[in-house]
Specification:
With 251 residues, the chain is an all-alpha fold. The chain has a domain of 102 residues: Serine Threonine Protein Phosphatase 5, Tetratricopeptide repeat, CATH 1.25.40.10. 77% of the residues lie in helices and 0% in strands. Helix 4 packs antiparallel against helix 5. The longest helix has 21 residues.
Amino acid sequence: MRFIHVAPAILMFAVSAGAQTASELLGSGDQDYASMNAQGALARYEQAAKLDPSSYEASWKASRSAVDIGSYSNDKSRREALFTSAEQYARRAVQLNPGGAEGHFSLARALGKTALTQSPRGRIRYATEIRSQALECLRIDPKHGGCLHVMGMWNAEVMRLNSITRLVAKNILGGRVFGAASWKEAVRYMEASVANDPDRIVHYLDLAEVYRDVGEKAKSKVMYEAVLRMPATDVNDRFYKEQARSALGVH
């Protein structure tokens, strides 16, 4: 008898949820995103994208939330599935609106996350497209903090490869763009991401690590300390703060 009473309630909830428009679901997703409920945001954005497959906004936002969740998932298969889903949503966004910066950023970000799960040589095949998507984003919006960040990290990750791997990538595997990477460009782009998007903790964290890699210890410390002072506004900011505390040796 309990099942008989519960079933109508479940059915009413499903009908109510299904009655929401794509626009309403996007609004609910944005509320979840702002409150750092990444799972809820992703569910709403995916529902909106399903209801309205032509929605550019639903596609790039679903990609964003899938990457947010996957970035610190301890489940390897789930992480890979989320990054794959993020790439698919981002590709749809770029197809729907080639002139939109967020779609190109989302695709570069999703590909970058997948690349970091690969072996050093495995990352090479992603490098060219990551760079091209980020540069197209910056062509559309030269001050896009996220795309400046992607370019900074692209340069840093290429330079973090050992010299032999970079040489193989450049001369044997056709990765000519690897020759454009430098620590100077990594610093320049990361500093620009902080300057143009000063409220995002992750920019400061990755700039700190680039400074560390180029031997600018004092500047690196300043950036790590900034990470600890700043309020958490994104779902993964708590992880970024943990990384900064670890780097500084504080608890």
